[in-house]
Amino acid sequence: MKKTLKDLNFKNKKVLVRVDFNVPMNNQTIEDDTRIKGSLKTINYLIQHDAKIILFSHLGRVKKLNDKLKYSLFPIFKRLQELIKTNIYFSPYTRGQQLEHKINQLKNKEILLVENTRFEDLVEKRESKNNKELAKYWASLGDLFVNDAFGTAHRSHASNAGIATYIKDSCIGFLVEKELRNLDKCLTNYQKPYVILIGGAKVSDKITILDNLLKKCDYVLIGGGMAFTFLKALNYNVGNSLLEQDKVVLAKQYLTQYPKKIILPLDCAASKEFKNTEPKYIDIKNIQDEMGLDIGSKTINLFKKYLENAKTILWNGPMGVCEFSNYEKGTLEICKILAKLKNAYRVVGGGDSAAATIKLGFQNQFDHISTGGGASLEFLSGKPLIGLLPIKEKI
Ligand code: ADP
Ligand code: MG
Q1: Same structural domain for residues 288 and 316?
Q2: N or C: which end of the chain has fewer CB within 10 A?
Q3: Does residue 281 contact residue 308 with C-beta atoms inside 8 Å?
Q4: Minimal CA–CA distance to 294: which of 262, 263, 260, 317?
Q5: Do 166 and 111 share a structural domain?
């Protein structure tokens, strides 16, 4: 178990905090500040406990000089000033005397936001490749380190794993703690019956999750584009639906090993082309040259029966191409079903799945919607989150 905020004494300390301010931006305007707000609990705790707070985050990918303009954290600094009532300063430098001076000037309860850590990627990807010198340098700027950036927990960067390696003491923040606690209820501390609802585009993206969770769960309900590779493995004609030919053998293996656990669609909303056309509802066995872009009502009812008996439900991957309004129905209906199942522990993991449930208005209807797409998948695959590994363990 990793140390948490409650395990450290922050009074008068320079506390380096890795947050996730990687928000969607449009022309230096923040499109959605959910992630900024998500970090406030940890920041406010540190303010209350008399720390000097130094915030680090990445934003976007910085490959050329021009990206520095596009991905400056300055607009986020402005937003922070509106959200937090304390003195907040900004350092346009990610290293050097001026940054050090600003840190040394900080008083208790004050905040310094350091410019985008990925500005260091312009030179040999120092941040993203966890350059030792950079990590040591950043670690030397503070006394303690808090990692509250779940979105990058599956990456080993200088600003997360790096700083944690070289600093005296460290812990995870409230956001990371909550993610780990909730996702663990689908990984080790799950209640049975345990039903996994999986969709999205590709089998290849979900192999590690299936490998890890098929043995633990009672049922896997498969929708989305990936269902067609499984249907193909059962010799159905899938027409022009999304198909990963090179994964059919693997799908066959899963179906042979777990014949009763894997539940596949009975029908689909089909289209002649990959567009927001008027859907045609057909049974899977009747597919000719169409492509299945969503699950149909028979499938929704079938999935509902399994979901209603579950004590734990993990959902990853939309049931259809929910970017098209005519093909979001399957995902929407599943949201409605899950919203009513208050006796089950319901977790949504995965970037597109989380975005879809929020877009459809269900952000407060489940027990947990993970904020970290890739990180949640990695965790549920049973892999260690390498960005968190060097954080100190509770004694
Ligand atoms: P997550 O990010 O939650 O893990 P994925 O990235 O695996 O989810 O899947 C999301 C994508 O899957 C969406 O872009 C969606 O359009 C696509 N998708 C879902 N169903 C289908 C389908 N039947 N055919 C093609 N693409 C699909
Ligand atoms: Mg995705």
Answers
A1: yes
A2: C
A3: no
A4: 317
A5: yes
Q: Please, which pLDDT band fits residue 11 given cuts at 50, 70 and 90?
A: very high
Query: Which of 112, 145, 175 is the C-terminal boundary of a domain?
Result: 175
pLDDT tens digits along 233-267? 999 999 999 999 999 999 999 999 999 999 999 99
Query: Which ligand has the minimum distance to the alpha carbon of residue 322?
Result: 1
* pTM summary value: 0.91
- 158: domain range? 5-175
Please tell me the distance between residue 144's alpha carbon and the centre of ligand 2 in angstroms: 34
Q: Which atom of ligand 1 is nearest to the CA of 292?
A: 23
Last residue of a domain, one of 139, 157, 175: 175
Kindly state the helix (H) or strand (E) to which residue 56 belongs, with its residue range: strand 52-56
* Cα 32 to middle of ligand 1, angstroms: 22
User: What are the residue numbers of the active site?
Assistant: 35, 202, 351, 374
Q: Each residue of 254-263: b (16+ CB within 10 Å) or e? A: beeeeeebbb
- Residue nearest atom 10 in ligand 1 by C-alpha distance: 200
Q: Check whether residue 151 and residue 218 sit in a common domain.
A: no
Looking at all shown ligands, the one closest to residue 376's CA atom is 1
Same domain, 103 and 49: yes
Q: Ligand 1 in contact with 331 (CB < 6 A)?
A: no
More reliable by pLDDT, 25 or 218: 218
Which residues keep their CB under 5 angstroms from ion ligand 2? 351-352
Q: What is the CATH number of the domain that holds 286?
A: 3.40.50.1260
